[in-house]
Specification:
By secondary structure, the chain is mainly alpha-helical. The protein has helices at about 1-10, 25-40, 40-55, 60, 95-110, 125-140, 145-160, 165-170, 180-185, 190-200; strands at about 70, 75-80, 85-90. The chain is built from ten helices and three strands, in the order H-H-H-H-E-E-E-H-H-H-H-H-H. Strand 2 and strand 3 form a beta hairpin.
Length: about 200
């Protein structure tokens, strides 16, 4: 189980020690989210929720276009993700209204990207990481909450809800040689069904 978890979290462990990466607790994620909420910066709030609900990598998030979001299906298309592969990731149905309002605001400003800075420029990886560092400090946390830590949190949380690794894989964008054949037989619809079943229990 730990080997599979490391594979999903993209953690390589050299040497004899095989320790799992640090993953924020539910309490720490709630504190981090509360710090974002208190600022009332809606764009930042939507960005953080997108990380939390989809588990996308930061390099993928900054490339998302408005046209990549399917509000009806509660899905976002990730184009040319890791390994130059396209995939579809879900988001919580309860997030749809907030996301739709954010998208409406972006379109009103003539934007194409889902996220842009106040200077109407697409966010950079570094810019997103610095933003999250500021919120980590604001939340009073000892460990920095990075984009990848939120990805770790989501994938670990889904596993804790009893979702099979094979159903998590289509969204994580990670595949092993041993499981590739099995994964190819799974429908996104089945994975979405399991995601929708457990996501109402998500801590934020």
């Amino acid at each position: 189980m730990f080997r599979q978890l490391r594979r999903e979290l993209e953690v390589e462990v050299p040497g004899p020690s095989r320790r799992l990466p640090w993953v924020p607790s539910e309490e720490q994620v709630r504190a981090f989210y509360a710090a974002v909420w208190q600022t009332r910066r809606i764009g930042d709030l939507v960005l953080i929720k997108t990380f939390l609900y989809t588990g996308v990598r930061v390099a993928e998030l900054v490339k998302i276009q408005l046209s990549d979001v399917d509000l009806d299906r509660c899905q976002i298309r990730i184009n040319l993700g890791k390994g130059h592969k396209d995939r579809v990731v879900p988001f919580a149905p309860g997030f749809k209204e907030t996301l739709a309002l954010h998208m409406q605001g972006r379109r009103a400003l003539g934007g194409d990207a889902l996220f842009e800075s106040s200077w109407k420029r697409r966010y950079s990886d570094r810019g997103v990481r610095k933003m999250m560092e500021r919120y980590t400090v604001l939340a009073g946390l000892d460990h920095t909450i990075s984009p990848h830590k939120l990805r770790h949190f989501l994938l670990t949380w889904l596993k804790q809800q009893g979702i099979d690794d094979a159903l998590i894989q289509p969204y994580s964008g990670h595949a092993s040689r041993q499981s590739l054949e099995l994964y190819s037989r799974l429908s996104i619809a089945a994975a979405q069904q399991e995601y929708d079943r457990v996501i109402p229990k998500f801590p934020v």
